[in-house]
Amino acid sequence: MAAPLALLLIVAVTIRAALFRTSLANLISERVEVVSPLNAWKRVVEGLALLDLDISPYSGDVFHETPMVIYLFHFLMDYAEITFMLADCLTAVALYLAVKDYNKQVFRKQKFALEADRIPMDCLELIRSPTEMYYIPLKVAMFYLLNPFTIVSCVAKCTCGLNNAVIALFILSTMRGSALLSAIFLALATYQSIYPLTLCVPALLYLLQRLYIPVNVRRSSFWFYTLQYLFMFLGSLLVLICLSFFLLGSWDFLPAVYGFILSVPDLTPNIGLFWYFFAEMFDHFRLFFLCVFQINVFFYTLPLSIKLKEHPVFLIFMQIALIAIFKSYPTVGDLSLYMAFLPVWNHLYRFLRNIFLVSCVLLACSALFPVLWHLWIYAGSANSNFYYAITLLFSVAQVPVCLSPSLLSSRESSSKTALFTHSLLF
Amino acid sequence: MAARRCLGLWFFLITLCVVSTGADVLHTTPVTGTESSAAGTETVVARELPEAPSDPGEHTAAEPTREGEQNDRTRGGEQTLGQPTREEEQEQEKTREGEQTPAQPTREEEEEEEEQEQTRGEEEFTREEEEEELTREEEELTTEEEELTREEEEQTREEEELTTEEEELTTEEEELTREEEEQTREEEEEQQTTAQQEEQTKRWEATELEEEHVHDAAVPPLAGDPPAADPPSPPPSKDDFQEELVIRPLHSGDIYASFQFRTVWDADFMGDQKVSHYRLFPKSLGQVITKFSVRELHISFTQGYWRTMQWGQPYLPSPPGAELWVWFQDTVTDVDGTWKELTNVLSGIFCASLNFIDSTNTVQPSASFKPLGIGNVTDHSFLRYATLPREIVCTENLTPWKKLLPCGSKAGLSVLLKSEKLFHSTFHSQAVHVRPVCQDPQCRTTSMELRQTLNVVFDLHTSGQGKREWSLFKMFSRTLTEACPLASSSKVYVDVTDNPQGEQFELSPATPLLTQAVVLGDRRTYSVYDLTQQASFGSSRSLNMLLRWKAADGYIHYQPSKDRERPHLLEMLLQLPPNSVTEVTVEFERALLKWTEYTPDPNHGFYVGSSVISALVPSVVAMDTNSTLDRPLFSSFFPCKEEASYFMRVYTEPLLVNLPTPDFSMPYNVICLTCTVVAVGYGSLYNLLTRTFQVDEPSPGLAKRIANVIRRFRGVPLL
């Protein structure tokens, strides 16, 4: 299995390296869909230049990366391209290993169910054969590495590639049952962009499930483990933030990074919902809607964890997808991470009614982004509404993609199948 | 107005200092400037400064802060040798001792070694060399042991070193005071009352290097130091080895490093008696010269092309690829045959494809390529010249080249020759020149001279970010720790001609020795580091020259903007040479504003104010500095401080930037549509959260139901 993965990595690196050498790289790094004010490479360079001039990079409104990133690239400036390619490869390998682990568990569960004869006859078509499962991890790695969204994001040197790598490592360490590493990587991801905070709950659920600790508020072992995990997570987060403070000698970065993420002052168009909404928003409603939109991202965590407490891995996937859709400065790099997970549940896609339509919409939107941007900004023959319409459609299309495994239409499958699927297979 | 606020204005405060032939003028005036929105990157393109005498006081003010930065920024083993005061040095030394690796032999050991060397006879040299190697190995072993027992020994050693250094320091201080007294006396004689510390430390070395001897005398004579011989003086021994490195900062910002290793031997290769005892001269080459009766041999391997337009003339020109030209002695009968054999042998020695030289690419120039050594040969039938332009120069050529050196790559300047750095450069050329030279001015006896040269140009851009900072460590990933013990002279020259007052670059550690040499029809000034003097290595025992290019401007003040709070401000103090072009580029992104922040006519665009240039321009006539005089009003607005220049302010055109605009007519629609999308997401999730699945048996048909009723009555199981 290592050989196909190695081949895949080589192909992926070759594509990226070739694209870095073309003039496309400059063009891509200017695209608003690929880079956001939060993670544009140009801004990292600017921040480094400011640091060299002995000006705090956060004194202006240009740099919004965390201090660790700036110090990372202080040393890796000359090797930026390699760093981003490595980050992508690291993400793919981590996802590959994580999904492999996960598949083993699913397979074991499936075997027990078969032996116990708990599977209804009409659900046998949902049973996955070992060969099928054998190729799923590779498909996941391939979906990540060869996804055009990942490629353009890497070529634009968008730092969300690094965030993806951290999240992938977090998933891997969670799958392997290492609570400490999981907490550290989660803290790192949270430190980079607040939103991964919501991944704390599924990770905890998974680790509890792995140790056969029931989720029961009256059990002391549950509370002990939960507090232990939270302590590790918050502790490493605190260490990271204090480290940043000692690196820079000031707390300037807190408002410049997290304030910037939460209050959305930069309304540069992107693929998300925030920019046009808040550009057109009446001033006195602004704060209210800002709160509503930001809470919207975190809001689903609790009900979803209650509903999907038996399926923490699926919960992780849903949280990542929801973050990518509803975060304040989304880029296509964020999409690519949750899209990589789609092959894991591919046996359920046969129940989806409009998967063809949805994928067509996503493809068409991706093609229309640059076209309508050109018409609006350069040609002047279209206005902002054209671009806005496409971003809306893009967001709408993403919702069924992330929810599809759970939104089985009972019209095509018998309700028994649906029940079985829900209870067992994800 | 709201829109303007948001956009963030750029204020450029550019102050120019226009330099003409003699007048150097400087002035600062605040002015308003150009603007744009978000990100800004500025590029300053300025051409080289001519050699204009300017006031040294301008730059000294900025130096302390720069040094501080420099110390902060050095990382990864690279040691900065700034110009700290004595006390600081001592302190640094104290702090450094804890970190110092025991890889270098301590000073005492070195001294002992050198002492041994001097006392021994030359005949025993080979044995001595072996012994030396042995002792070195032993030392290495002992250092390893020391590492093990380091914790125990460290304290005692530290104490020892401290005491010795304190002694040295005190003696040095005494000498310094003595020197200062002398200097003050001299200065009094010269009626110079302005005493600048920097200038005091710099002393001029005469072309004959007399001053250097004075300096030598001033330094406590270190036991065993071979006396620094001057190049023209006759070598005391039968053979003599000198090494030298010249570093020339090029105008393009690149660095040109030229190594020369010269071995002169009194042996007469032309005579009949066979030369069989080799000391410093490489045996492999000597045998070749003897066997093929070579009078002169010049061979060069070059990778890359020397850009004369950008870099000026090299010290030793060479064509790309390999070049070989040889003068044979007139005793050779079959020149072509010998030439063929020689190329094959040399190809083996230098691991190069010189064996591809044959009659198809060999010529006999009749006018050029005269012998460079002595001898008045006119018969060009003994000259052969060939080039191989395709020859690729790489590590396998460098290694045999280094083996020809007496010290190999173990000590001296040749430790810097690491292939991984040397071949990561724009230009690389290595050459071997063998020729007969005169031994004395009367040219009574001849001796054989072997010059090995290596020229490298390091690229400015390889360091990334265009940071124009160079150090020995950065260039070669090594620092100098000692001279080659076999060398009678070992020096590093840094060309500082273009940098008379230190305004172009800054060299540290500063050396008090300066020398002048005429090269390529020009008199150049060089800072000299004599590696045979322990003092050159300073307290850290390693010499790492650091060369920092100063920016073309004297001062940059940049205040980045904050959206809706404050504008950008960029102030630059520039000193412009005459007939030059300076470009300041600002890159910007177009931002989308809130719809209430736009002006009533948003599609007109947003104005960016003009940038302002304030300059002192040299005046043709003397200006009137007395402002109280009765003058016409139009000529007396700007006060004039100097007679030679007048003040001028230039405003550039304002910019009109077209920003993207939202559709102002549909805030309600946008709010509704976006909220709908959020609701779709919320609805789907709500659906997922609340949906429950139940197995629901399809209701049986009417016939079946009736049958079941009957069956129930009968007491049989249902269908």
Automatic annotation (TrEMBL), chain A:
Q: Which residues form the signal peptide?
A: 1-17
Question: What coarse category fits the chief subcellular location reported for this protein?
Answer: endoplasmic reticulum
List the membrane topology term(s). Answer: Multi-pass membrane protein
Membrane-spanning residues: 82-99, 143-172, 184-208, 229-251, 257-278, 285-306, 351-373, 385-408
Q: Which Pfam family, any one of them, does this sequence belong to?
A: PIG-U
* Location in or out of the cell: Endoplasmic reticulum membrane
Pathway entry: Glycolipid biosynthesis; glycosylphosphatidylinositol-anchor biosynthesis
Question: What superkingdom heads the lineage?
Answer: Eukaryota
Q: Which GO terms describe its biological process?
A: attachment of GPI anchor to protein; GPI anchor biosynthetic process
UniProt keyword annotations, A-Z: Endoplasmic reticulum, GPI-anchor biosynthesis, Membrane, Signal, Transmembrane, Transmembrane helix
According to the UniProt record, one GO cellular component term is: GPI-anchor transamidase complex
InterPro entries named among the record's database cross-references: PIG-U
Query: What family is this?
Result: Belongs to the PIGU family.
Task: Name the chain's protein.
Answer: Phosphatidylinositol glycan anchor biosynthesis class U protein
Species of provenance = Gadus morhua (Atlantic cod)
Q: What is the lineage of its organism?
A: Eukaryota, Metazoa, Chordata, Craniata, Vertebrata
Automatic annotation (TrEMBL), chain B:
Which portions of the sequence form the region Disordered? 48-204, 218-240
Q: Where on the tree of life does the source sit, at the highest rank? A: Eukaryota
- Is Cell membrane there in the keyword field? no
GO cellular component annotations of the record: GPI-anchor transamidase complex
Return the Pfam families for the record: Gpi16
Gene Ontology biological-process entries:
attachment of GPI anchor to protein
Which UniProt key words apply to this protein? Answer: Signal
Biased composition regions of type Low complexity, renumbered to the chain:
218-227
Q: What is this protein's name?
A: Phosphatidylinositol glycan anchor biosynthesis, class T
